[in-house]
UniProtKB/TrEMBL annotation:
Lineage summary: Bacteria, Pseudomonadati, Verrucomicrobiota, Verrucomicrobiia, Verrucomicrobiales
Gene3D superfamilies (alphabetical): lambda repressor-like DNA-binding domains
Protein name: Type II toxin-antitoxin system HigA family antitoxin
InterPro entries: Cro/C1-type_HTH, Lambda_DNA-bd_dom_sf
Amino acid sequence: MKTKYTHSFDSMPRDYAGLCRVFLPRPIHDRAGYENTVEIADVFAGHEDRMSDGQNDYFDLLCDLVEKYETKTVPAPKLKSLALLKHLVEENGLSGADLSRILGRSLPLGPMILRGERKITAAHAVLLGKHFGIRPDAFIT
């Protein structure tokens, strides 16, 4: 059954055991389990620079569980890297400025990439892969 969690990053425990008391990671078998896991993982997305070791391990595990489920149930889209990025930005309700923040770069970078004026570098691909929970090579044309 889908559960609505209302956690913020700052309200989450910093230790792994405490995080497991909030949401115990388990193999994902259905859509509800998937949605619950993604919802908790989203609490950590974008806070990689502020995470404790326990939070980082917990987030990595959640991402691994989501990736395993998606690999089995979601067909991989056949998109070029820029089209994939535009799709992910739109699906997640992000702006070009949000993309710049994800990349940790100057404010104009995100919109420039989305307009095709700048290429996605390998370093960008790693950050995007981590943020969106997919393999970085998906962003390399």
